[in-house]
Amino acid sequence: MYAQAHLNDVFAALADPTRRAILARLAQGDADVSELAEPFGLAQPTISKHLRVLEDAGLIRQARDAQRRPRSLVVGGPLMEVEEWLGPFREQWERRFDALDSFLKKKKSKREKGDRKLRCMRNVGFRVSLRSRFSICRPIHRSVLLPTNSVGAWC
Q1: Is 26 exposed, middle or buried (0-12, 13-18, 19+ CB in 10 A)?
Q2: What's the CA gap between 78 and 63, in Å, rounded?
Q3: SS3 content of the chain, % helix, strand, coil (to 5)
Q4: In the chain, fewer beta carbons within 10 Å around the N or the C end?
Q5: How far apart are CA 140 and CA 149, in angstroms?
Q6: Can you tell me the distance from the alpha carbon of 141 to that of 126, in angstroms, rounded to the nearest whole number?
Q7: pLDDT digits (tens), the chain, 155 positions
């Protein structure tokens, strides 16, 4: 039960775009409250509230360096829990993408074979009728071929 509640806290902390931006900034290195507040144009108490949520979720920690209190990103910890929770979903989507990739490759292969067949028919002078475009090809005499930009299903 604790793990589920903690995971909820982590997702709640990650739900806010300002907190995600703070995490992205802390991924580059430690920073104090004024450095974190600067890009947002928010007051220090507002940033402090965001930082408190991130600290309560275990995503960041506060250190003491004389007068400064820099925040740093916690490596592993809650983000590893999120990664573990997302694992089965990632595997499912990867299987789906693999299946889609396989399907598209087969479709491309069939299309390329069909294109080769049509090129061959064009050289011989075949016409594909509109009604039976994929099933019947009739040979016609080269003298009655129309230009390829004319209306009709000429090869």
Answers
A1: buried
A2: 19
A3: 60, 10, 30
A4: N
A5: 18
A6: 8
A7: 567 888 899 999 999 999 999 999 999 999 888 888 888 888 888 999 999 999 999 999 988 877 778 898 888 888 888 999 999 999 999 999 999 999 999 888 888 777 666 666 555 554 544 444 444 444 444 444 444 544 444 44
